[in-house]
Design goal:
It is built from 4 helices and no strands. By secondary structure, it is mostly helical.
Length: 130
């Protein structure tokens, strides 16, 4: 089921590499606590069910790991929690850099209007100069 606008076109959310790296840096610099935020942004902007599913999975991850980390009684920490956090950050990074945002569409050249000068047609001339 694709989300469509009133004109019938699918909603697209294009992002350049700067925005992709920015969202990735946010997730890594927050130590994974804000990993759900870029997925919420995309789900709100584009509204596809798959985007809401990605947001829900990362929000569920956050709701499980935060109490798990708080209730860990060991002084060294839980190795499974560390593995889960690293795997989640890697998955989020791959999704943010490759699959989450739509690729930019190439801009079509402006249509030629009758009466306006266009590109010069090919003219065969003397190849050795004069």
């Amino acid at each position: 089921m694709a989300t469509t606008t009133t004109t019938g076109a699918q909603k697209r959310l294009e992002a350049g590499w700067g925005q992709r790296f920015g969202w990735t840096a946010l997730t890594w610099c927050s130590c994974g606590f804000l990993v759900w935020l870029p997925f919420l942004y995309v789900a709100l902007r584009r509204g596809r069910p798959s985007d809401w599913g990605a947001f829900a999975s990362f929000a569920l991850y956050e709701c499980v790991t935060v109490p798990w980390a708080v209730n860990t009684n060991d002084g060294d920490g839980d190795p499974f929690l560390g593995i889960a956090a690293c795997v989640t950050l890697v998955v989020a990074t791959v999704l943010l850099l490759s699959a989450l945002f739509d690729k930019k569409t190439p801009q079509a050249p402006a249509a030629m209007v009758y009466g306006q000068p266009g590109p010069a047609p090919y003219q065969q001339g003397y190849p050795y100069g004069r």
